[in-house]
Amino acid sequence: MHKPYVIGEEKALLYALRKSDTSAFQLIYNKYYSLLYIHAYNKLGDRDAAKDIVHDLFANIWQRRESLTVTGKLSSYLYASVRNRILDYISRERSKASYLESLTHRIGSQPDEADYHVREKMLEEQIETVLLQLPPRIREIFELSRKQYLSHKEISQKLNLSEQSVRSYIKDALRALRMKLGAFPWILFVLYCKIF
Fold this sequence. Notes:
The chain contains nine helices and no strands. By secondary structure, the protein is an all-alpha fold. Helix 2 packs antiparallel against helix 3.
């Protein structure tokens, strides 16, 4: 049975987190998720992007919990981490916008089918690289959907999972791809993935 933590006991809380205490992680998540989400949403004006950024931060904290080092207040660390992710997101969005503008101009003036195929191949290779880094179960479900074009229901029956679990796994895969492939135009990614 985990001991309850007083929110002011940050050092004890972080120590417990480094020892993989899920109640310590849950306490941090419950206290800061909404505040961080509102902060990200106010900066971006995009609910999905704000959710992805904050979710990614907490997932990263849990993955790095054993080596996590926080100097100063936990709240300051979390806000700084979200701010950095927001800046990265804005930078990627600007890169995508610039790329799309350039691509649209080239297509409008002189369509180049060979160039399109090269870029499509590069995108496919980048996606495969990211997929190899995913947990096996998430990768398996994503590939059943993307490569074999199975519906959520078909995948759930094939793997003896609920449809909600299948949707959740695919969402996790898409989130990882969105975070890793910010340099590529989102529209090509959506067309390539063909998620139901």
